[in-house]
Structure formats: C-alpha cells, structure tokens
Amino acid sequence: MNLFPVSLRRAAAGALLVCLTGTGCVSGATHSGSNRGAAPESSAVSEVPEVTYDTTDLLKPDKKYFGVAVDGAPDSLTPVGKYADLVGKQPNVVASYSAWGNDFNIDGARRVLGAGAMLYVSWEPFKPSLAKIADGSQDEYIRRYASEVRKGNAPVAISFGHEMNGHWYPWGTKNATPAQFVKAWRHIHDIFQDEGATNVIWVWSPNVVNPVPDVALKPYWPGDAYVDWVGVVGYWTATGASTFDTLYGPTTSQVRKFTKKPFFLSETASEPGQRRRADIRSLFEGIEAHDDVLGFVWFNITKRADWRLQASPLALAEFKRLAADDRIGFEVPRQ
What we know:
The protein is an alpha/beta fold and 335 residues long. It contains 10 helices and 8 strands. An 8-stranded parallel barrel has the order 1-2-3-4-5-6-7-8, surrounded by 4 helices. It is globular, with a radius of gyration of 18 Å. The model is unreliable at 1-48 (pLDDT under 50).
C-alpha cells in the first residue's frame, strides 16, 4: 500500500532538500550537510507568496508526530513513500540535515507539505565558528536563508547546532562555550523575525545527557522566547539505557528545571539485537504516556549501526503494529 496520493507520488520524483547521512555521536555518527545527489527538478510553482502559513496549531497538536529520516530523502519523496509502505503509516515529519552555507530548498519544503508533512531541518554550523555567526559577519547568509524560508510559505522546524552539549561536533563543548551558542542562536532567531520568517518552529536539540553527565544544559538555553520545542536526540544501543525513562528521563528532568516547553524526540532508533522489539515498545509506550512529548523521528538509516527497521523483521512487525494507533500520526494541513 502506498499512502501517498498518485498526484503526490508523481510530484515526489524530484529532489527535495539536503542529504541525510548520520546519527549522533553517542548513538550514531556525524552528519554531512552537503547537498549531493541528482539535481532537483524545477518547481512548478512560479509565484512566491508572502508568509501566510500559521504554525500555531502545529506547536502542540492533539495527536503525536510520526517522523522519519531516510536515505535519499528529502532529495526525493520516493524513499518516504517506501517507508510509509513498510510501516503502514505516512510520516508527517521528514527530517533533513543542512550544512551552514547551504541554501534553503523552497521547492522541497513545499513538496513535503504537499505530502501532508512538515520539513525538519537540522542546521549544522560546521564552519565558521559560533562566535563568527554571532558577531554579524554571517548576516547576509542568514538573511538570505530566512528569506527563502519565508518565501516557501510552508511550516519548517529548524534545529540549529543540535547536540551542542556533546564534544563530537565543531560547535560542541571542545570548541565553543554555552554563551557563544546562546548568542548565535538568539542572533539567528532575531534575524528570522526581522525577515518575517514566522513559519518556523524553533527546536533546541541537545543530546541525551547520559554520555555527558557533567555538561549542564541550562547554560545552553536561549530562553523561552527563542524556542518552541525541546528536541532531544537519543538512541537505544545494545549496551545503553533499556527503557524510555532511563534513556530520556535524566535529560527531561534537567530541562524541566528551566522550561516547560514540549519535548520532541528529534532523532531516535534502536540498535538491532535481541532487545530491539522491547526498545520499540518502550518508545511508543513512552510517547503515549507523556503528554508533553509530541512525537519522534525514527532514524531509518545505516550509520555505524543498521538503524533501519527492515533489518529486523520481528522488530518491524512490532513497530508497524504500534504505529497503527490512531493517536499517532496526522496530516499536516496545507492551509
């Protein structure tokens, strides 16, 4: 069963945005932000409207988000459609990774919305430094990116500098301070506001604190006025936390001391092994048990481990059974 309408499957033949290439260090690997692959098809949309898309109803919807990161997407919607066939439900969040310096793909955001989903962009500042981003020297690029987001007139979730509390990225603890991160985040956010890019959901996305327990999260917090969701990155690994509460609990407990913003599991998956079905049950049970957890993105890509559901037929069957719950998944409105 292909859950995309025929017209959308035809439109999905072109490229969407940027490449998806990895998982977090502790529970995966680094991401590449380059824009590779076949050239995107030209957009059928010639007119660029001003922003009319209102994200208010998407900030805390009645049902849970059901997202995915898949190889080849969002350069093409075809892998997303195949994943929908695999799990029996259409994703409503399509994750992507964009290196600092890449342009925003307007056509991609529109195509994702046309498929009833929202584009999620992890914006990765490999270079220049956070200090350079904050000092104004990158403003021309930021304004151009914000203008492109605005012109897309589609909802976009943006996470700048994800996993900033880890040491494995250039913007992490080895090369930048919390103050530099906060200053860069606020500076970017303010420029987006100035450019009228109000169709953005801002996702502040640390790694789970388990592997870096001595790094406090509060100093990295830009403030409630600058963030919509707390997007936690956390994976079940063969030797790591074995329940929803042990994987995410230490992080959510810290966060709740300084904000009540809702959580979104911006990257998750389970490493293949005997425990995989139990991990998947823990994920769905945890999502459903916590009203302040909005949903998740399953990282269905091979990177340092084979996180793909199809690698474990029994685990896939369990995932498909649980994903059939009507409380999970909904169509993002086109407005």
